[in-house]
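Box 3.1 — From sequence to structure: EF-hand domain-containing protein
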Amino acid sequence: MLGLCFFLLVGQLKLVRWPVAAMGMVASMCTEPIKRRRAEKDLDDKVAAALRERARSRQRTFRTVNSITMRLPRFKDGLRDIKDVFDQYDEDSNGTIDNDELRSCLGKLQVQMSDKEADDVHRYCDVDRRGGIQFQEFVVLLCLMYLLFGPDVTRRVSEFESAKLNYVFDELIDAFLFFDKDGDGKMKRKDVTRRMNEASHQERTPSHTTAQLFKEMDLNRNGKVNLKEFLYSIIRWAGHETEDDDASNEGSP
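Predicted structure (token representation):
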């Protein structure tokens, strides 16, 4: 795709008479990844700013990696409650939330966004790039909305469960801040290595273990882990799987 864009820009395809419509389609295909990266960077910057403000205004929740590991069962219980919320917004019950369902969801949460902003959020939270927001990605979405727009979001999700959702989201965000030592919204491999070895002065965690842990979180393989990647990974580690996941894994070794 980049090669095609390059040849179009430098005029190396002079011998081919491209229809105007086809040229427009190719130009759109070339600019779409750029637009996506720009929108993702904008959202990453907003999340990073919210994380910095949170770090200044709150005391640390976690002091060791083990203290985070011990909370995984609680995270799983909280995620179980969110599954019921996901089912409510998945209006056609197909296991994913599409663009229209997302806009309906944001409207019910009273999150004020333009159509373009809603589209950007949809693409941003579609971590696996499958075109719809699945349950794990829905948790990422709610947690990000909670961080950016405050606790009223969870109250509108469920008045009855809002306190529990606040607790889960607070601890998930604080777990990320435990690793994000620079406070820039990007966790580096050195941050994970340092934190994994802080509690023990005698026995260090093997380097291949920290490398594998970081690799599992670095979903886009850019050498940094942002909050959405961390949340997505924590959900997997907490052991919460939807029925669709269970069915798809039945044949796995």
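Summary of the box: Residues 1-18, 242-253 have pLDDT under 50 and may be disordered.
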